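FAQ: What does a ligand-bound record look like?

Like this one, built around zinc ion:
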Amino acid sequence: MSAAIPAWLIVAGPSTPVAIGLATVMAAAAWSKGSLRPSGAIAATVVGSIALRAGATWGGFLIVWFAWVTVGSRLGRARKAVRTAGVVAKGGQRDAIQVMANGGIFAVAATLTLLRCDLAAEAALWGTAALIAAGADTMATEIGTWIGGVPRSVRTGRPVPTGTSGAVSVAGSVSMVGSALVLTAVAVGFGLVPAPRWWIVAVAAVFGAVVDTVAGALVQQRRWCPSCDTATEQARHACGTNTQHRGGWRWLGNDAVNLLCTASAAFLAWGLASLMA
Ligand SMILES: [Zn+2]
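The answer part, i.e. the structure of the complex:
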């Protein structure tokens, strides 16, 4: 890996106070629109400030990424809320842990760029792959629960309630791959990823989202509501009953699986880039 500073790094981001100011305004807007909880807005301000400070390419890409997943979560919102009401652990409002599970690795990569010029090109590749994996996984869930019909569990092959982790539908899978490709094109457009290396980022992002689905099906904890006789991810079901552990690893919830998704994408992108170097 050459230590030369990539040309795109010359496109400097705003100064630190301006970066924090911009990130705060955007996070506050997302909070007031109901996309983030207060803790999620604070975490998003941190991630956004670091990205903007790292450069216009990082900040610009993060803003487009956020717009993309926000549109995805708003499509058919009422219908999705009804279809997944008794299943998903958390609603559409992201808290700090969810924001960090999705954007934490991207923020680490952006920080590394600020500290180590010689690692900047590599960090851009794996950091971007991680964020795109989170976006692809989010879109698979959002579009899948909206128009995807009854999903099937990867573990059993049987139909499961809409919103269940580790379940797939055709619409969700198409959205996952489509989102990975669109977001990769955006990253190339911003100059965050060199055009000849687009496939590394796209393949790694899809891999991360697949790992998310498989881990969600095989090892994520599964819970059961004895009153309603139904599967759920809620510790206390929508009906008010405390749910029972039914399988999977008790400590492995949806947030940890999302972190695994972004980490696997980053790891594969790093590995592929190292092999190709
Ligand atoms: Zn219940």
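Follow-up question: can I read anything off the structure? Yes, for example: Confidence is low (pLDDT under 50) at residues 1-5.
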